[in-house]
Amino acid sequence: MNEDATNTSGSGRMMDAGGLFAGYPGAALLVRGDGTVLSTNAKGAGIEALLQHDAAPEILHLIEKAGAEGAVTVGSVSTQGSRGEVPLEITVVPRDGDETLLVLARDLTMERNLCSALVESRQRYKDLVEVSSDFSWEVGPGGTFVFVSPKGALGYSAADLVERRPAMFVRDAEESDKLPFLSERPQENIEMWMVRADGEPACVLVSSEPLLAEDGEWRGARGICRDVTPQRRQEAALAQARNREQLRNHIVSTIRDEVEPLNMLTAAAAATGHALGAVGCRIYRLDDARKFNVAAQYGTSLGLEGVEAELTGLKSDSGVAIAEAGDGGALVTATHYRQKVNGAIAICRDQAAGEWNDDAQILLGDVANQLGIANEQITNHEHVVNMSRTDAMTGMLNRCAFLEQALPRRIARLEYSRGAAALFYVDIDNFKRVNDAHGHQAGDNVILFLRDMLLKHSRQGDELARFGGDEFAMWLDDIPYDVMVRRAEELMEDSKRMLEFSGDADHPLGISVGVAIYDPATGENLDDLFARADEAMYAVKHAGKSGYRIASEPRLETKDTERPS
Fold first, then answer.
1. Tens digits of residue pLDDT in 3-19
2. Residue 174 DSSP class
3. Residues contacting residue 181 through CB under 8 Å, at least 6 positions apart
4. Against a cut of 0.85, is the pTM above it?
5. Range of the domain at 149
6. How would you class 36 by CB atoms within 10 Å of its CB: exposed for 0-12, middle for 13-18, buried for 19 or more?
7. CA angle at 475 for the pair 471 and 477, rounded to the nearest 5°
8. Model pLDDT, residue 555
9. 249 and 343 assigned to the same domain
10. Residue 117 pLDDT > 50, yes or no?
């Protein structure tokens, strides 16, 4: 079963829901027609609880309706979450061939929030346009204003404009004779940029009508101007917002399309770099030691030199900061989850590209919010994976992770490098007597004592595992034969300290160790290698315990090299 799917069948029959739910990012459940949940993925646990406690009548109604009609049923419901009401779109799909139904839930919170924000923004723009001011004007035969509305225009009084040429107030008026103020034919809503009294630009729609004498001679023109600067600015802002939304949606969908959690950040770095025209992008994760580590990178890192100095002071409400790094400026901001910083993102661009604009900073802030969620998901995923791969008491790898994941990778690397390795199979002698005589807490102390002893006699990068009970394993990479023998002897010498934990004098506590040397040139598989170590360990047991034995070479008789403790 997929690890994200949970069996909840009352009969105890396992449901293969992993394939059914695979790739679906939201909550997914397999139910009977009466709402009984058969299986669910991790995100469906909340809905499962609601159904079990009869707290989701709307969802149950959709299930019953889909079951009765034998057709896909879709509806919207609201549930209460930790942050208040959560709107959900529920889709119920009857399954052919049985009486079960697939329930899929999609969170509509973000869509509703974005829609509400967009409606509010558009209404604001509409109000600004409706209160924009108009002014009328007339130009005489001399090409100067002879009349302007009493209230003036563009911050000028009427007196400031009269008897002055329109070109004086038009930005970049290279051909003043073609201005609509001097047109010899009717013109309507000609857009042009003028200059306000404070020097700021103003976008104006000009409509004009020429004044002609009876003989057709041009005697001037009159018309109206409408200042549409707020409208044009709002239209530009709306276009920028749409562009940001499209880019943000692209980045978010890129993250969500990744099945492997760690690949989310790599995809996000590339998508963010492309979207913002950056030449480099780094995404950081904050570890338990409060250190920022690079988790993903896109493009060059040269422009991000020195950004790390900005990271330590980041807070969840710091916003986007412009940092001096490399040859130009970089943007950096924290990622956070529930107001707790869990990482950061930084981008840089070529110096020739100029300064970052507000759009880039806003979009990077939006991306950081999504990355904060992604970082939290990755941390949770790593926690789950670590729990599934490690022994709860010792923190070592468990049997499955050691034999099916760690060692195959090690052996594949040695097949390439042609190096040798050693597999130590360790079993505690007379361990049961400790539990019988002193209790299970004393037995736990023995387990932890042996863990620390194995750590002492291993190197950073070696693999250690507890197989359960009193069995342990240690894999030493790239170790010469004489060093391996010395390591085994030192381990046995150190194991004498375990005598103080013995259940009684007749059952001394110690360890029996079988050592199998791996040589990639033999082509030996992992099962045979482990069997040789296991056989050597049991040979020590049968010979009186408390010693070590080096297993025979593949397909050779065991060579007795046991050294009693």
1. 455 555 443 333 455 56
2. S
3. 137, 139, 166, 206, 208, 221, 223
4. no
5. 133-227
6. middle
7. 175
8. 62
9. yes
10. yes
Query: What are the strands of the beta sheet with 134-139, ordered from one edge?
Result: 145-148, 134-139, 218-227, 201-212, 187-195
Looking up tokens 């923004």, which residue turns up?
121
Residues 6+ apart with CB under 8 A from 147: 136, 137, 138, 162, 222
Please give the backbone phi and psi of residue 152, each rounded to the nearest 5 degrees, phi first.
75, -165
Identity at 77, one-letter amino acid code = V
Q: Which of 267-271, 372-376, 486-490 has the highest mean pLDDT?
A: 486-490
What pLDDT was estimated at residue 326? 53
CATH number for the domain harbouring residue 285: 3.30.450.40
> What pLDDT, on a 0 to 100 scale, did the predictor assign at position 132?
42
Q: Indicate whether 410 and 532 sit together in one domain.
A: yes
> Mind listing the pLDDT tens digit for each residue in 125-137?
444 433 444 788 9
Does residue 449 surpass a pLDDT of 90? yes
CA-nearest of 218, 186, 404, 363 to 276 is 363
Residues 493 and 452 in one domain: yes
Reference 91, options 59, 50, 69, 68; nearest CA is 59
Residue 312 lies in a domain: yes
My answer on whether 247 and 217 are in the same domain is no
State which of 354, 385, 416 marks the end of a domain.
Answer: 385
Whole-number percent of the chain with pLDDT over 90: 29
- CA of 185: how far to CAs of 32, 178, 221, in Å? 77, 11, 9
R_g (Cα) of the chain, nearest Å: 38
